[in-house]
Amino acid sequence: MARRTGSVSGPTAAGTVVALILAALVAVLSRADWPVVFGAADWAVLRFTVWQATLSALFSVAFAVPVARALARRRFAGRGLLVTLLGAPFILPVIVAVLGLLAVFGRAGWVSQGLGWVDLPPLSIYGLTGVVMAHVFFNMPLATRLILQGWQTIPAEQFRLVGQLGLSPAVVFRTLEWPVLRQVVPGALALVFVICLTSFAVALTLGGGPRATTLELAIYQAFRFDFNLGRAAILSLVQLTVAGGAAVIALWILPPIVLQTGRDRPVQRWDARGLWPLDAMWIGLAAGFLLLPLGAVVVSGMIGLGQMPSSVWSSTWTSLWVATLSAGLLIALALPIAAWLAQARWGGAEALTLLGLAASPLMIGTGWFILIYPWAAPVRFALPVTALVNAMMALPFAVRILLPAMRQVFADYGRLSAGLGLHGLDLWRIVLLPRIRPQLGFAAGLGAALSVGDLGVVTLFADPEVATLPLQMYRLMGSYQTNAASGAALILLGLAFGMFWLCDAWGRRHVAG
Amino acid sequence: MLQVDGLRVVQGDFALSADFTIKAGQRVAVIGPSGAGKSTLLGAIGGYTPSVAGRVVVDGREITNAAPDMRGIAMLFQDGNLFPHLTLAQNIGLGLRPALRLAADERQQVAHALGRVGLGDFGDRKPGDVSGGQQSRAALARVLVQNQPLLLLDEPFAALGPALRAEMLDLTSEVARDTGATVLMITHAPEDAERAADQVLFVDEGRVDAPRAVADIMANPPEALRTYLGH
């Protein structure tokens, strides 16, 4: 009873993460200009950050409700594929999606060209519109899945009863759908709000300027353009307070995040037989909104593949090893923490991992830049720090994926293992790792994909010599080499989905009985 | 030999007290209504449930606070007695070495145990590929190689049909005879006790009566046992 697995390594791993974040925070604090002066420009940044996150959350969820409703009550060929596709934006590199959105909705995009034929002015999606649109692109699918999962908890028998009594869609909504919606929607809103609050790459590519700068972007600009560490420090503190506060509030109303695909069983529905054109429209809108930008990336990427400078290939290699290192670090941190929490008697332990979402990658990056600067050229540490920060950002998700499986193993085989004297490494090798292999593969794949597509900390450190693929792509976009950027986007897309698929497939192979 | 001295286990508002001695090599059926504390008793002896007072002594060695694997006890649970991702031979090998790196003679021991329970050719199969009865046999083969002085059974055969269950009880008796183990087995069926036990421990509302010979207690059951059996 005394020897619990991970009772030392779990707190050590968690402590390391906390120490890394705290060290960054202390470093940032040491460089802030006291007393803190918060100017009009800073207020504008804060206002825009909160405003775009609010709009993103509202639009994402408002779009998600009818789409989820349509998906919940219709069965059609390709429905399963579409529901799976809703999980794809989670591992889609932000900059790839941005390029796709620009190809469809940008000034020279498909929609603008169509408008040009009927003598209408082209769209412009830079600024608030673009930022919110990109956030909706990423978070509407997430919200849809949360709501869909909520409605799937309604037993099929209740819908059989609906069919038998011939209840109208309005009555079904009031009696069955609304009570679930009321529980899920606040959580979905909160989650999207928190995610958008700390969004960086979207603001970097589609925002900017005095009217569309988020806190993360302002940290980057203060740091990169002005090398004003004092201002970067103050903005980092504001970011930590705002995002941390929002995350704490969100914790109270957050639904459990289920990242796993599958387990989606369409329920036979007898209500709303006549409303199918409406549902078809919502499903078509959602599918088009998600698939058109992705299709645009693939099409223009094929054209651009031949026009890429060789630097794209070297940064592909860089990204590959950074993501591999990051996934390795992620697993090395997540496994002991999950094993520790799985045996913890304190139920709030799981919630604590979500707080990690609030830590700003740019704040951590800034802090470590300050710490490294007096000793060595920070550029030399750009890639290891990127891999580490990426791992820390993916940690809350990885722990939440591993924890239920780990709990199950201890519940099913804890006593048997203890009775046989399986401890420490033997327990990991013979029992834990084989039993949680599917979740391990999924978490590692997620970590690799998130890292390979991340355009965050690396922007602070990198110099022209060192670049990950997303950064290289961003530079190509910035120098108007759109074709080359499209080619790089296609490679990045393949890299993100390929790494995820590889890890996930490894986990699913030989799934034990 | 199993000696339980003034053992007291508290779980929420449920409390169990036990004070009894079982002679070495005896097979004891633990009988009583649901929620009486049978599993709690075995859990406390096995080292899975902490006790607040008393002592547990196995073969003269006090094990009250020892880890489950350091108590001289082999235990089979209601389910989850085999790891589904390991072969039957590997599952049995765990009874010899938790690190699962077996020497040649230990491999031989595993093969012998497999043969002893009638699974000679099944060593490479996984639990999911064999029947429930064969899974029980494999678990008993591991008990055989564990070779511990005390064997605890928390209804591992409850899911089997009557004929198969009787077969497993007979095999358990053989395994216990081979290893010289004292056996404590929870059961709901009086015929199981009559078939495979020498003594009965009756547990009711957190109290454990002194062990009595099977024939004696069945012929002359105390009031609470009579109510439980529905006689």
Average pLDDT reading of chain B: 92
Helix content of chain A: over 70%
SSE ordering of chain B: EEEHEEEHHHEHEHEEEHH
What is the percentage of strand-forming residues of chain B?
Answer: 15-25%
Class derived from helix and strand content of chain A: mainly alpha
* Secondary-structure content class of chain B: alpha/beta
Give the overall average pLDDT of chain A: 85
Distance between the termini of chain A: 27 Å
Share of helix of chain B, binned: 25-40%
Count of strand segments of chain B: 11
For the secondary structure, the number of strands of chain A is: 0
Largest sheet of chain B: 7 strands, mixed
Q: The CATH topology of the largest domain in chain A is what?
A: MetI-like fold
The helix tally of chain A amounts to 21
Number of helices of chain B: 8
Beginning-to-end CA distance, first to last residue of chain B: 33 Å
Structure commentary:
The complex is a heterodimer of chains A (513) and B (231). With 513 residues, chain A is mainly alpha-helical. Helix content of chain A is 74%, strand content 0%. Chain A folds into two domains: 1-30 and 308-513, MetI-like fold (Orthogonal Bundle), CATH 1.10.3720; 46-300, MetI-like (MetI-like fold). Chain A contains 21 helices and no strands. In chain A, helix 1 crosses helix 13 (310-342), helix 10 (215-224) runs antiparallel to helix 11 and helix 16 packs across helix 17. The two termini of chain A are 27 Å apart. In chain B, helix 3 (104-116) packs across helix 4 (132-146). Chain B is α/β, with parallel strands linked by helices. Chain B is built from eight helices and eleven strands. Chain B has helices spanning 38-46, 88-93, 104-116, 132-146, 162-179, 190-196, 214-219, 223-229, and strands at 2-11, 14-22, 27-31, 53-58, 61-62, 73-76, 150-154, 182-186, 199-204, 207-208, 212-213. The A-B interface holds A 1-3, 412-413, 415-416, 418-423, 426, 430-431, 434-435, 510, 512-513 and B 46-48, 50, 67-70, 73-75, 77, 80-81, 83-86, 94-95, 98-100, 126-128.
